[in-house]
Write a structure and sequence with these properties.
DNA-binding; elongated; 9 helices; mainly alpha; homodimer
DNA sequence: TGATAATACGAACGGTCGTGCTACTTTGTC
DNA sequence: GACAAAGTAGCACGACCGTTCGTATTATCA
């Protein structure tokens, strides 16, 4: 023994990726729980059982969809922000990339995580836990950005970093919510304005 | 014409109210769409068909539940805020009453409207429209509060009232979300702090 | 009091859900 | 080229969904 390790076929890997990609997008419209295996299968043109064979249960599909959405979010929002050349620039890029991710739109029903957590925050289980982890990680990322901008002398070190992160994320989520509710862009405009003004106030150059 | 108007019996009115009261509470946990007639009927100890007879369809039940939740929200948050004796006091009371409504808690799954809109914002139909109306009305109420505080000379008239309302509501919704996700009270503490600091900054006495 | 309509129930409808099971096809490895 | 593993489809299951219907009960008003 033994070359008997299980290997996954290339086409299977590809369909699995296609399923998960469609699942993340559909989940922002129908809900991560409301999404049904049958409709998802129809949507990508395969049979319910054929799709189902890639996952042991609906819950595993949901968990895998969260991983996929996390990767999509990283690519769209987090990674491109690393290119900015100052800590404050990276923080601002993070916020602006989030709005770009809403406007493109990457997901038809707005931010995947905002939609999924709102739906599952009262449903105990591993799916909820994974979403909470993601949300906490996102908030921690913003808070770290604030701290680095403080250490870099761009933001006032007297600002409460966790509170400032709370405020910035609140504006982003509110922008997402208004955009999904009204379709137009005014909600995102207000969110951008709120963030700009809040970061201006936290700038150390003010004194 | 015309004596053919439907009369409603007193006991029927009472059970109908009991159904709707339970429906609003259950809806914040299971979702307004995810709520099923059968589980709701079990929860209040009556038969599915007996319950169903009070409403022509599930959608009518949802619409009636929104009316009931609106009334509960008015009693818990809006009406008591009218007692404050200055416009700014009323605005602050509005925010504080909202946090009290979350802490009591009036609904087990957090704010009814935050939960319902997040679930149904991508489901077109009269239920969604009614929720959007409610949300817009709430934002307009806050904005009017800001305007009156500006006219009363308590808040800086140069502040963008709509934007300030956006920010205050963003903090409240974010506080609600964190509380439902983590159970503890730290999210509400941050929301309170954010609102206090934001209103301080908008005060006219600052100069 | 008797007539009448609102109320509540049990049973059942067709439909969809997640989930197994079986059989056939495709692919990758010796 | 044989053989095992993986992918896919078809089918059926039990459970639950919203909804309807027939019927027994009961509050209300003439």
């Amino acid at each position: 023994m033994s070359a008997t390790t299980r290997r996954r076929r290339a086409d299977g890997e590809q369909t699995r990726a296609a399923i998960l990609d469609a699942a993340t997008k559909l989940a922002t419209v129908e809900g991560l729980d409301g999404l049904s295996i049958g409709r998802l299968a129809d949507h990508i043109g395969m049979s319910k059982s054929g799709l189902y064979a890639h996952f042991g249960s609906k819950e595993e599909l949901q968990l895998a969809a969260i991983d996929t959405a996390t990767e999509i979010f990283r690519d769209a929002v987090i990674r491109p922000a690393r290119r900015a050349d100052t800590p404050l620039g990276r923080l601002e890029a993070l916020c602006e990339n989030f709005f770009g991710y809403l406007e493109r739109p990457v997901f038809p029903g707005g931010c995947f995580f905002a939609s999924a957590t709102a739906e599952l925050d009262t449903h105990p289980g591993p799916v909820r836990e994974k979403l909470v982890e993601s949300l906490d990680g996102w908030l921690a990322l913003i808070e770290r950005g604030v701290r680095e901008a403080q250490e870099g002398g761009e933001l006032d070190p007297l600002e409460d970093a966790a509170l400032l992160a709370f405020e910035l994320d609140a504006f982003m989520k509110m922008g997402n919510s208004l955009r999904v509710l009204h379709g137009d862009r005014s909600g995102l405009g207000q969110a951008r304005a709120a963030i700009r003004s809040r970061l201006d106030r936290a700038r150390v150059t003010k004194r």
